[in-house]
Amino acid sequence: MDENMNIEAVSWESHTYFMGFDWAKDHHEIVVVNREGQVVLEMEIEHNAGGWHQLREKLVNLAGSDLSVVATAIETTCGPAVEQLLELGCSVYPLNPKAAQRYRDRKAPSGSKTDRLDALSFADALRTDGHAWRQLKPEDPTVQELRLICRDEVQLIGQRTALVNQLRQAL
After folding, report:
1. Which pairing describes strands 17-23 and 70-74: parallel, antiparallel, or unpaired?
2. pLDDT digit string (tens) for 142-162?
3. 97: Cα within 13 Å, side-chain hemisphere
4. What DSSP assignment string belongs to 107-149?
């Protein structure tokens, strides 16, 4: 397990960069702003090892080796993207989907929606309002393992049920 997974909540004042992270299944749109709200990094990464390595390199070039100074807003509280961000050492702040829509509306009242606009609005919302948001803390490794086992059990039960139904239909 990466030592960054054991980070404690970081004080709000220590954040110098604010990353908006619009996630998707196969790629992610990223916008990083500084304390003044200027965009200092824009990129899209693939959801694979190469993409995450590329993000780490860009963030280290921007912020240095301690990535806890990068506060990240993302529209979920769990999943592979959140786990990767926590492993990078970023401070992660989940964003409620309804609140995300409101922040998006502030940036584009016309209702237009793009991945870049989402990432930018998340980053700026975190910069201006994030001091009141709850920071995610990494899960205990035992809890992570239990979550994976439970997910696998649910999938296996579904497969068993499907096979029993196929067998009954065949008989």
Report:
1. parallel
2. 876 787 788 888 888 999 999
3. 3
4. H-TT----HHHHHHHHHHHHHHHGGGSPPP-PPPHHHHHHHHH
